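Run: sequence + zinc ion -> complex structure.
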Amino acid sequence: MSRTDVQTWIYLIKNFMPRLPTPHGNLRFEGFLAYARKLSDRNKNMLRRMLACLDMNGVIRQNNQLTYALWTDRDRKANRIRSKNRRLFIQMGLVKVGDGKHVHHKDGNVFNNKRSNLSVVDGKKHKKSHASNNHVANQTCKAFMAQWRRLTRTAGARTSSARAAKRS
Ligand SMILES: [Zn+2]
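>> structure
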């Protein structure tokens, strides 16, 4: 994680999650991981969504280790289930490695793993079938980015005008 990423983190928490304790400015990467792991599930989800949005908009590049530290127990469990289903479907010959197929939960509940709730779908179509969720996520990201740009613009203007005032 670069220095800028650490600063982005602190900036995010200070401005968007003001009720959280501010991570110390001199924290090293390990310190950030520990800080991330200790957050509540709700805060983990919020922070992860904001970081993903900043990544999507080219403001930062997400760090995998950090993203993983922000996973909730539920995320880890869901991920284990997805891998398990995939392995099972490969064993049954219903899915092949690299065939672009996904195992889909018909009712949208990753914890309902009855065979009747699982189906093999085309990966691309599968992504589209979940597009209604993506749409909400995109709208939230757009709103967040607007707020982010407003804030960073004001902060940038403030520091440059302070510099200008010092110069004169
Ligand atoms: Zn699905």
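>> summary
The helical segments are 3-16, 29-38, 41-56, 64-69, 73-91, 123-129, 131-167. The chain has two domains: 3-71+132-167, 73-129.
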